[in-house]
């Protein structure tokens, strides 16, 4: 249940702190006063897309935070644990949008993504917007609503995945059947190329090694001469640097008896002499290692010529020939699979069987859910001034199947007795669509486990006794969970357990929305305003009190 909501600098709200109650609550006020701002803030908290327009004029950021009592739902606890977002006794959600449109979100004090907000919101609240009725005219919305009502959403996703897998297997099989001759030619060419490249057997990194070795062998004489000359200068010549440095170090060490500062210099020179000796040893090893090897040079040059020839033939850099061989081998293996029609046919059959099994289960579940939902909506229509009307759900067979299973879902309605049920989009007037849509939403909400239900002017297009019935239904719904409804109908608002009023006011040249919790006396005044408009009479107040049952 939503326990508390804090809003700062959001649209027309400067600062607002609200403590929510259980049961059915109504939010009322003049048109344009900002009744929907509260629900827009909640929608942002639950993952709706945000932009800079929600930041109040002249402010740097909008800040929205809420506290929820976590429902006793093991799936929610598991989700919070899996996301490392588990808290204590409350679920704390916060979202900040700056004037540049950047958004930051937090769940239980930990930074979160908009996707995580949406996933969390599915456990906490369900918002039915003003135009939810019109969404019911779309085939995809009708199908999703029926699947949700029947608890079939996960199965429907599996069916879609199986269908895509089956289509992929079927397309691969068709391609293999149609292109066997061209595939055979490509396979023969690839086999020749793989054999040729495999015979060359160029290892990864070998080309660079060949280049380095070729450089050493080509300049072996110069390298030997240079190493010998350096060795003579460092340690083996008459004026070797190592010996000269050691002598100077010894002289300075003797003089250090008279001036200690020379001792440090002597130590530096002594260390340099040791380094020169080490350099001499290294040069000696290098000189002994370098050989004049014309035969090996010829072998390396022949190898490089072969590699360069293959590179020119396949039009690739020499160092990539090993990768090219791996690619050709992989393609040859895939062509071998395409040539194996028996295996491809078996895969296609297995993919279809997986789709067929789940699609048939989905069809059975939809048939059961359709009967139940159609009966409940038809019953509700009788109470909503549509006596004799009937709501039905047609499952139109699609024998070939689709990503949605073996049928299309279509909502049908007969608004009056003796009429033939026809598609909802073709026969329902605006008022009838509102009543049918509201019935579907309320019935769908009754079967959900979400603890907070929010309705934003979903009662548009109804009035009179029908509105009173709608109010009673929402009140009944509020007996088991928290229900919040933005409404302009006094008959609906009067059925609420508690009521808030939204009004605009001007302060310091700025227009702001203010929200007031109404006591019994002020509820009479607000309901009377909704009944009578500008001039409120005692008769209107009496009528308002009657609606409130006072």
Written description of the protein model:
With 550 residues, the protein is of the alpha/beta class. Helix content is 57%, strand content 19%. It has 20 helices and 15 strands. It has helices at residues 35-45, 74-82, 114-124, 132-135, 139-149, 153-178, 180-200, 206-218, 220-236, 241-255, 261-289, 294-314, 321-339, 341-383, 424-427, 430-446, 464-477, 490-493, 520-532, 538-548, and strands at residues 2-10, 13-19, 24-29, 61-68, 91-98, 103-107, 110-112, 125-128, 390-402, 405-414, 422-423, 452-456, 482-486, 498-507, 510-517. The strands form three sheets. It has a six-stranded antiparallel beta sheet, with helices on one face. Strands 8-12-13-3-14-15 form a six-stranded mixed beta sheet, with helices on both faces. The longest helix is centred in the middle third of the chain and has 43 residues, at 341-383. It is elongated. The two termini are 28 Å apart. The mean pLDDT is 82.
């Amino acid at each position: 249940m939503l326990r508390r909501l804090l809003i700062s600098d959001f649209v027309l709200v400067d600062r607002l702190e609200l403590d929510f109650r259980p049961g059915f609550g109504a939010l009322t006020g003049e048109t344009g006063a900002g009744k929907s701002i509260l629900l827009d803030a909640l929608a942002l908290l639950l993952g709706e897309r945000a932009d800079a327009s929600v930041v109040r004029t002249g402010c740097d950021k909008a800040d929205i935070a809420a506290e929820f009592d976590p429902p006793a739902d093991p799936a929610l606890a598991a989700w919070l644990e899996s996301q490392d977002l588990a808290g204590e006794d409350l679920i704390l959600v916060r979202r900040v949008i700056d004037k540049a449109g950047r958004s930051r979100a937090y769940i239980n004090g930990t930074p979160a993504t908009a996707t995580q907000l949406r996933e969390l919101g599915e456990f906490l609240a369900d918002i039915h917007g003003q135009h939810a009725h019109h969404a019911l005219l779309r085939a995809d919305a009708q199908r999703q609503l029926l699947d949700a009502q029947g608890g079939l959403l996960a199965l429907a996703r599996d069916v879609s995945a199986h269908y895509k897998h089956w289509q992929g297997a079927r397309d691969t099989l068709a391609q293999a059947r149609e292109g066997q001759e061209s595939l055979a030619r490509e396979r023969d060419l690839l086999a020749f190329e793989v054999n040729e490249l495999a015979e060359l057997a160029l290892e990864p990194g070998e080309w660079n090694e060949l280049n380095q070795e070729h450089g050493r062998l080509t300049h072996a004489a110069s390298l030997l001469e240079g190493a010998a000359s350096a060795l003579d200068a460092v340690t083996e010549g008459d004026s070797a640097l190592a010996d000269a440095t050691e002598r100077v170090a010894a002289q300075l060490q003797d003089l250090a008896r008279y001036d200690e500062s020379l001792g440090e210099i002597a130590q530096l020179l002594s260390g340099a002499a040791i380094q020169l000796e080490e350099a001499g040893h290294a040069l000696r090893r290098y000189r002994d290692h370098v050989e004049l090897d014309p035969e090996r040079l010829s072998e390396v040059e022949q190898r490089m010529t072969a590699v360069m020839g293959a590179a020119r033939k396949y039009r690739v850099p020499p160092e990539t020939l090993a990768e090219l061989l791996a690619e050709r081998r992989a393609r040859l293996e895939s062509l071998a699979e395409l040539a194996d029609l028996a295996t491809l046919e078996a895969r296609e059959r297995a993919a279809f069987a997986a789709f067929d099994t789940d699609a048939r289960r989905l069809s059975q579940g939809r048939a059961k859910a359709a009967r139940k939902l159609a009966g409940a909506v038809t019953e509700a229509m009788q109470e909503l001034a549509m006596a004799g009307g009937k709501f039905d759900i047609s499952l139109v067979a699609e024998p070939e199947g689709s990503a949605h299973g073996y049928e299309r879902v279509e909502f049908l309605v007969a608004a009056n007795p003796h009429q033939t049920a026809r598609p909802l989009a073709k026969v329902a007037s605006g008022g009838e669509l509102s009543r049918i849509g509201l019935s579907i939403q309320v019935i769908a909400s009754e079967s959900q486990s979400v603890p907070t239900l929010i309705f934003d002017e979903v009662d548009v297009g109804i009035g009179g006794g029908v509105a009173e019935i709608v109010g009673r239904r929402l009140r009944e719904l509020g007996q088991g969970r928290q229900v919040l409804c933005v409404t302009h109908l006094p008959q609906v608002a009067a059925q609420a357990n508690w009521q808030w009023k939204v009004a605009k006011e001007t302060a310091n040249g700025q227009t702001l929305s203010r929200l007031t919790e109404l006591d019994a006396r002020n509820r009479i005044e607000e309901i009377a305003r909704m009944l009578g408009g500008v001039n409120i009479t005692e008769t209107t107040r009496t009528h308002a009190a009657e609606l409130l049952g006072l």
